[in-house]
Specification:
Layout lengths: L1 H10 L1 H29 L5 H6 L8 H23 L7 H16 L2 H8 L1 H5 L8 H29 L1
Helix pairs in contact: 2-4, 2-8, 5-8
């Protein structure tokens, strides 16, 4: 399966680039929505701090977290190119489906992060194992997916 996927991506590097670019743009949309929902709700469910607040560069978590987040978005976008043909509906809906599956599959990691993340343990960052963070992350992933699918469809149409 991995060999087949690798051959598929190697045959169409432009599609892979389109996916990575769409994922990067979608990561920006996710980040804008995250900042907006934190401002509206006052609940600091901050993915930048979650990602950047652990590890050797945790003192600069804003930069580290944003960098990791945007790189993840580009990688997810590149990965999206391999499953996108299997999904149904318009581009934005295919992107949402992909993003919600990813969010659902990775959500159990929150149980581990709530126990080991230094900022959560210190109370500087709230626990993610609550109702609101799950809702916020679901909405953010809907935004990410819609932008990913829409942008990829537009970019892929242009390069075809």
């Amino acid at each position: 399966m991995i060999q087949r996927l690798t051959r598929h991506l190697a045959r169409d590097p432009e599609r892979l680039r389109s996916g990575a670019l769409a994922g990067f743009v979608a990561a920006i949309a996710f980040a804008v929505w995250m900042k907006l929902d934190m401002r509206i709700t006052g609940d600091r469910v901050d993915d930048f701090q979650l990602l950047g607040g652990i590890g050797p560069f945790s003192d600069d978590w804003q930069i580290t977290g944003a960098s990791i987040h945007h790189a993840n978005g580009a990688l997810l976008g590149a990965g999206y190119t391999s499953v996108e043909p299997l999904l149904r509906g318009p581009g934005w809906l295919r992107g949402i489906t992909f993003a919600l599956v990813e969010n659902t599959l990775l959500w159990p990691i929150v149980l581990l992060l709530d126990r080991i993340h230094p900022d959560i343990r210190s109370g500087e960052l709230p626990s993610y194992n609550r109702r609101w963070p799950f809702i916020a992350e679901t909405i953010r992933h809907i935004v990410f997916g819609a932008v990913l699918g829409y942008c990829f469809e537009r970019l892929n149409r242009r390069t075809s």
